[in-house]
Amino acid sequence: DSFRRYQFVVNETPFTRLCETKNILTVNGLFPGPTIEVHKGETIVVDVYNMGNYNITLHWHGVKQPRFPWSDGPAYITQCPIQPGSNFSQQIIFSVEEGTLWWHVHSDWSRATVHGAIVVYPQYGTTYPFPQPDEEVLITLGEWWKKDVMEVITEALTTGADPNISDAFTINGQPGDLYPCSQPETFQLTVVPGATYLLRIVNAAMNDIFFLSVANHSLTVVGTDGSCTKPFTTDYITISPGQTIDALLLADQPPGLYYIAARAYASGSNPFDNTTTTAVVQYYGPIYPFQQPSFPYLPDYNDTSAYINFSKSLRSLTSESYPIDVPLNVTTQLISTVSINTIPCPNTSCAGPNGTRLAASMNNISFVNPSIDILQAYYNHITGVFDDQFPHFPPYVFNFTADYPQLILEVPTRGREVIVLDYESTVELVLQGTNLVTGLDHPMHLHGYSFYVVGYGFGNFDKDKDPLTYNLVDPPLQNTVIVPKNGWTAIRFIANNPGVWFMHCHLERHASWGMETVFIVKNGNDSNATLLPPPPDMPPC
Ligand code: C2O
Ligand code: CU
């Protein structure tokens, strides 16, 4: 093959943040990692060399990978990890996406430092469906722990408690002016008065949903999750882990210094960090000495309606060149709770509520990884690796009010239940939040597909009334969507990508606790509707 190749060498590299130096896992010594730049329709190969000390896998978040889950990356779902000292060549097929996506480790918490952006330009010979920006700028949001991130999660899973919160939020790897020892390295964007900048914003944080805004400037959103949206102008954006937002910034203010600021949104009773990460927009031209950047408005940390209003403003572009194909008739209606739970500790008491451990589940199954990946088990008919009895809740009765069947749901079963779909079935999935241990927002992410977000609501999903409120005209196409606190979200997609595809909460602590499931999409009848064979160099378990 003549595909363009990237070399990704994963190794430990010393970095200094917050007055301390530590080794972090990186790709090619960079944090954030290298950016992949492609055009829609292109295929590339990434040669991954694991020179670090941990088993790892890499995932291309939001890339459909038609019929080829072998390179998708989630550990024990589509591959066994790449062991230290080994390598794996991953083929990334960009077929339908356009805009900003990203890649990250998909085996454990080392994704805190091992991640980078993917920029998918329009097909060769075509242009953006919005005015050509003068410049493009990546804004990657992240988190920094002074401790080794692997210790943070190991400690949390051992004690059964919430993991420690990070020590800083970051923009392009830098905490910014408001954190100790950080000011000289704050990310700076120098702008020409009158010019337009396309901000490609990625939320690569582990556990935090953000509000972000720019002082005195509004943003015009033009894309999300690698698909184009109807332009809309806003004073702030909200972005959950996994999500990407493309937005235009017009440098139309008097020359000076302006902060880009981001801080966490949190509606539940989970541990909370109210610090703010900043970058600076600086206009070309004379700046008065000692001038302080002005600070932007940001919604309150618990402003759920600010969050949901922003999410509801995302609409598909729906033009001749950007048609939509939202399924109007549903053949497969699925519903799943997404819950934080507690489970009993092995023998002694642990540090979760009432001496239990914290857990998380979908339809009361707390997912546990198998010891070989589900994709190879499915492809090679190896039994005993997964079950296909994912439970459904036909009566549409939920318990977010913590009254009715609360006891039944409180202790989840640990398992590996997959959802099997026929090829080209038209699927509606309603994700229902509950309030068992606590009500929290969950950014749910599906691999192998983008889906249309047709509705959101608060309270229990009402199967008779709520579908009447769906947007079937221009729903946004996303790969990560928020399920609001004590509410529900409805998504639709056509199961036209055969293979094994992971679904999980993109808050890393919830995924670690088991808020995960797997879709198996069966083959269609003709040969271009079937799962492709594995490459010869799949890592062994
Ligand atoms: Cu961003 Cu399952 O991943
Ligand atoms: Cu979650």
Can you tag this structure with a few keywords?
Immunoglobulin-like; globular; binds copper (II) ion; 6-stranded mixed β-sheet; 541 residues; binds CU-O-CU linkage; mainly beta; 3 domains; 5 helices
Report strand %: 35-45%
**Largest sheet strand order:** 10-9-12-17-14-15
Major sheet = 6 strands, mixed
Count of structural domains: 3
Question: Residue ranges: pLDDT <50 for 5 or more in a row?
Answer: 400-407
The set of bound ligands, ions and cofactors reads: CU-O-CU linkage, copper (II) ion
Give me the Rg, rounded: 22 Å
Number of helices: 5
Q: What is the top-level CATH class of the largest domain?
A: Mainly Beta
- CATH homologous superfamily of the largest domain - what is it? Cupredoxins -  blue copper proteins
Please state the structural category. mainly beta
CATH architecture of the largest domain, by name, is Sandwich
Care to count the β-strands? 32
What does it look like?
The chain has 541 residues and is mostly beta strands. The protein folds into three domains: 1-127, Immunoglobulin-like (Sandwich); 131-323, Cupredoxins -  blue copper proteins (Immunoglobulin-like), CATH 2.60.40; 332-529, Cupredoxins -  blue copper proteins (Immunoglobulin-like, Sandwich), CATH 2.60.40. Helices cover 7% and strands 38% of the residues. It is built from five helices and 32 strands. A six-stranded mixed β-sheet has the order 10-9-12-17-14-15, with no helix packed on it. Strands 21-20-25-30-27-28 form a six-stranded mixed β-sheet. Strand 1 and strand 2 (20-27) form a beta hairpin. The chain starts with a strand and ends in a 20-residue tail after the last strand. 50% of the residues are buried. The model is unreliable at 400-407 (pLDDT under 50). The structure holds CU-O-CU linkage and copper (II) ion. Copper (II) ion (CU) binds at residues 442, 505, 507, 510, 515.
